Amino acid sequence: MKVAVFNTKSYDRTFLTAANVGGKHDLVFFEPHLTLETSVLAAGFPAVCAFVNDCLDAKTLGAIAEKGVRLLALRSAGFNHVDLAAAKDLGLTILRVPAYSPYAVAEHAVAMMLSLNRKIHRAYNRVREGNFALDGLLGFDLHGKTVGIVGTGRIGAITAQILHGFGCRLLGYDFLQNVDCLALGMEYVALPELFAASDIVSLHCPLMPETYHLIGAEAIEQMKPGMMLINTSRGQLIDTKAVTKALKSGKIGYLGLDVYEQETDLFFEDLSNHVIQDDVFQRLLTFPNVLITGHQAFFTEEALKNIAETTIGNITDFEQGRPCANQIDLDQVKR
Predict the structure, then answer these.
(1) Is residue 121 among the annotated active site residues?
(2) Is the model's pLDDT at 335 over the cut of 80?
(3) pTM of the entire structure?
(4) Active-site residue, from 204, 234, 261, 309
(5) Which architecture characterizes domain 2-100+301-332 according to CATH?
């Protein structure tokens, strides 16, 4: 099958080409994001492969459908950036990668906790400048601290396993209780109780209408003074302006972000020679107790290999008319 692969970097091309054993599919790689303006590149392709920061709204989907696209193969687990109602009306099939390496994201979340706590990023820069003073680098023992995990699916559960090894007390919030988390001694509580009791809150839930700005002024008011907030899930789970205000007041003592609600025009690109126009993001960078990585949590060899192999397998299933377990059920979409 001829596939237009949008928003690609060198590593995407490397892993997708390796997974496309024998050249079973004709992969044509495009560097630009898929948008209404770049949708012209999809002409003549029955399939389009897109990433998490591509614009897959109704207008873009309509444009690629007019050009003959029947399959949208996502290289991501999340699909909140896709207008599912429009896809259903257009008769598009959407396939995704529901799991690639939950260990990658969970380990990154814990790495952010450790870096923020022990000021590893600040200490690294100090030592390179010949400054070996310890003032301002005081941390705390992770052992014995209470960590609230919001969302205890595969990634949240593995995060819980790692933190259990550190000797943390675990609180959880989810609609369904995970038996693996219960076996670790996790206590499931309501969100206000989790916020009030947790020294660290780590977000591992999907972005849905119900979770949009889950962390806003009301939630922050319920949190312990000086707590640590980690988000490796979706940027729009956090009201960035409310969090910035809480950083200024000291209510939030540490903030680790691998995602950002306005990241589309920032992350995955080299903007080192440009002036970043996002004033909210620029403000965050001024805080010494904020650590930001550019949607890097998923970025391991194992994850990229699994993403590529699953994506190619999804496309093959579609081409050969086989049922695909990774297809999004658009019949459940409500307008």
Answers:
(1) no
(2) no
(3) 0.92
(4) 234
(5) 3-Layer(aba) Sandwich (3.40)
